[in-house]
Amino acid sequence: MAPCVSFALTSLLLATRPAWNLVSAEGPEKRGGGGESHDIPGHPIHTIRLHRYDHSGLESMLEKEARWHQRLPSHTIIDRGGGGGQQQEEHASSSASSSSFVELSAIQTTALKRHHEEHRLAVVDKSTTRSAPPGRKGARHEESSRLSPDVPPSARDPETPAPAVVRMVGLSSQYVGPIGIGTATSDCEASGRSSSECVAQAQSVQWVIYDTGSTNIWVVSDLCTSEYCRAPGMSVYDHTLSQTYRDLPDGGVYLDIEFGTGKLSGPQGRDDVHVGPFTVKQQVFGLIEQKVGEAFRALPFEGILGLSFPSMAAAGSPSFFENLINQRLLHQNVIALYLSPTDRSNNAMFWGGVDPRVVGGPMYFFDVINEHYWSLELVSLAIGSEIFLDSRTNTRPHHGAATSSPRAILDSGTTYLTAESGVFEKIVSRLPDMPCGEMTDSSHPPLTISLRDVDGVIRPFVLERHQYMVIDNDGRCWPAVMRIDLPVEQGPGIVLGDTFLKVFVSLYDRGDGTPGVARVGLAPARHGSEVEDRIRELTKDQVKFERRPS
Q1: How far apart are CA 463 and CA 472, in angstroms?
Q2: What domains are there in the chain, each with its CATH number?
Q3: For residue range 284-339, what is the model confidence (pLDDT) as tens digits?
Q4: Active site residue: 54, 211, 256, 271, which one?
Q5: Is position 390 annotated as part of the catalytic site?
Q6: Sign of the CA dihedral 259, 264, 270, 272?
């Protein structure tokens, strides 16, 4: 193997990608596809821009990406008063408007409405079990299982089950960005360069879902021959061409996971994973060998990067975050997430800190009370002055937690706010769907989520109705709340999905990596043209989706 002195993120498989391509937006490509490294004094950070995929399809994603790079308006603002359901294109900046409601795609809004309609019919029928309507087979199961570790029924070592969370299905929004997998070295002799001038490249560049609610890494690999792995434009990691790939000494665990209408399976392997300027050496991940099910047909992505805790890692293998810490790759062992409420292309993950320009107020820190998900102590969930969930209304016991309070789980892979059976019914009864123009401060008051910070102070996080209600094409508003029953070990509680995370910047802090020291920071998010310009500056060299000529 020829020695190399630098690393560039370029895929050896670009020529096989007719549908879309990963190219540098401006300037040379970076190792993991991110933009430049920038510093807060004493705190160097790196920024990866993420695209929110909302199931509008690949064409819509490519169009939104192109408009973002051309600095064109890329979203619609919906009149808060209803306006007959008319959508109006905003021709100013992509700043959030106080008159906008929660922005979902048409397919997501339809799914939310059906979810509420199913609940309403179930109440009328006095039945707790119903068949999903046509076209929605398994949808409730998929949504409910998004936060449940799936234990594969078959494994090479039956004594060592391999829990894994598969979250690439359902109609929740997915936040995607590029990573590099493996290592390939350019042909020095053919290029006439000396061995000391060899440049190492990622063997494959893949767009994956960045997910705070799971832990494992999956990538589409050369082992997979299904139509969903070999679709035009799909980037496939070839482990036989990577100079840094290694089999696990014990052969690893064969992951075989079924869910809803889809299935993923494949062996584990080890290779270098490149995110922005960081290279995690010998990361264990799943090589997708089988990718079966209609759930994958509309997802033009090639894997998932889980950023939660090692308790969810398959077969106890070190997680990506654990390796970032152990290999001392970050100045601070933190990542932060900024989500735009209006622009699907203007989201960012910060590594090693957070850029202060996206923060619009003080950041408070909260202890993680059970290091499985990023779960915090939920003091109360209230609508107006009425409390719907707190330690007094909690009827489910905790397992392995030091508090009797319910939990609030932060999850970038869940679109809505979620509540469990019993609480969900009370919330949607208090916040009924109705014509948007008829809502009042009395009918739909602020929704307040109160958390206890590291100093024991209760901090309220308030969502106004335009921040928790979704408008449909008929001008009717629906609460962005869905029912999910958490695993017994992780509940009871609620999930704070991107409906909440678009309003508040979230920072995920692992400290020195010692178990029990993790915490989460939350601060009001700042939105507007200045934030968009800042993210554009930070990620100007990041690779992007771009259609290649046929």
Answers
A1: 20
A2: 360-525 (2.40.70.10)
A3: 999 999 887 766 766 768 888 999 999 988 888 899 999 999 999 998 999 999 99
A4: 211
A5: no
A6: negative
